[in-house]
């Protein structure tokens, strides 16, 4: 059986020693009272909930799955899920970073991110039920009418109701411009919505009394394509004027998907048979409103793989220390045993360190992004808000794609550490691999994220936002450029910064002549950019560790952090050279292949 220990020490290191979040909050009136003690207390309690309440349900939930009653269209979640969710509500966790205006606690997004990292590590399938509700909350808060906010946000805040995002249809996934779901205006200002959606996570379940579906649909006179999409709030049960639940809305589960992983989450086929909904935002501008939820979901999906990377690493490390097999190539290490623990073998260490580096880099990036979100929403300086928002937009596809790609690499490596036992269900490792695999696909495949990064976020504004991030790197290089002890971390990111500028210009020029060049380079480009971001963050973490060691701090944590950073720069960061070379191979070797693909 696997185990999970919340990574509180590393979280506290990133929060307090690298980013000094409590000091950052002092500049935001909304969060000025959120101090170090408050932050630590919250994440400690969050860790307890994740490890003690939801983690024990992970394997059983995977084995049992969800059950649909086809006669009633009701879905029953795995045993223990509903009770754990009731405890989640009772403890106030859904309201952590929601606005006090709607009954929330108003704490920073950063703390919510830490909570959800641990929940995802403990049980990704369970965590998706409350996790999607946060995106629905944010979309309605940003674009909902006063009546919609009054009706839905208090219950979404407490977690008494959950939310979904209903985008995908059987004939169209990412290409939402092809969707066919219809919305017909009614005399009372509501809309009657008809259509079918698939792959709707947490689309139906028995853990709450009402589910608020955010549904993309077309008005009768809507223009074709993505410019003709509107967004609607469609509750499972209609809500009366006094807030009580009314009639059952004809939006229901027609089937559950049979999936590779996340079996404990109800991935539903949703039938919408003349359900009543209200419009969110303006007509034919539904994607703008839905993108609030989609961007929140993309950051959340990166967090899912971060959690799975961490829990897989913890279990692989424990196994490698305990499992004995063969002797070390440099001589016997455990004389009292008939063989040495496998952690003495170089390649086992490589697999473990790969997972550890990708977990710690991912954690730093998630905290960095959510701190930027806090600044975007709550900083009094307009320029800080604007710059923070632009950086979050740039980094969102990297969070989604780079962290989930790395999660795939890491969970597979950790399963490999177990050898044959990794393939056996009872150890839990194969579930981490299966659960993680969806994260590279949904909320926009990682190829879509790569196209978004390169085409829209970088080339779309001639690299202006990328240059803003480059200035952060440049400031660190200027600060530590003459520090010999930092050179092994500073030199690589300084060199890659120069290479990335030239690389971006080259891809942009080729893409101007032939758009397929952008498509051919995008996936490689995102990983190069991801390493540039991780390199910057690891350099900052190494900077802190070196200063602590120089000051006489004997905590082995700092030595371990330096060793992890050195491994990252020596063994993982150099991937960028290969990626830039393969990207420069261009589109011809992909597109001029009709005979090969006949």
Automatic annotation (TrEMBL):
InterPro entries given in the database record: Acyl-CoA_dh-like_C_dom, Acyl-CoA_Oxase/DH_mid-dom, Acyl-CoA_Oxase/DH_mid-dom_sf, AcylCo_DH-like_C, AcylCo_DH/oxidase_C, AcylCoA_DH/ox_N, AcylCoA_DH/ox_N_sf, AcylCoA_DH/oxidase_NM_dom_sf
Assigned keywords, A-Z: FAD, Flavoprotein, Oxidoreductase
Similarity-based family: Belongs to the acyl-CoA dehydrogenase family.
Gene3D superfamilies, sorted: Acyl-CoA dehydrogenase/oxidase, N-terminal domain (1.10.540.10), Butyryl-CoA Dehydrogenase, subunit A, domain 2 (2.40.110.10), Butyryl-CoA Dehydrogenase, subunit A, domain 3 (1.20.140.10)
Species assigned in the record: Variovorax humicola
Keyword Cytoplasm recorded: no
Acyl-CoA oxidase/dehydrogenase middle domain segment(s): 165-273
Domain Acetyl-CoA dehydrogenase-like C-terminal, first and last residues per copy: 473-593
Protein name (database record): Acyl-CoA dehydrogenase C-terminal domain-containing protein
Domain Acyl-CoA dehydrogenase/oxidase N-terminal, first and last residues per copy: 82-160
Co-factor(s): FAD
Domain Acyl-CoA dehydrogenase/oxidase C-terminal: 284-451
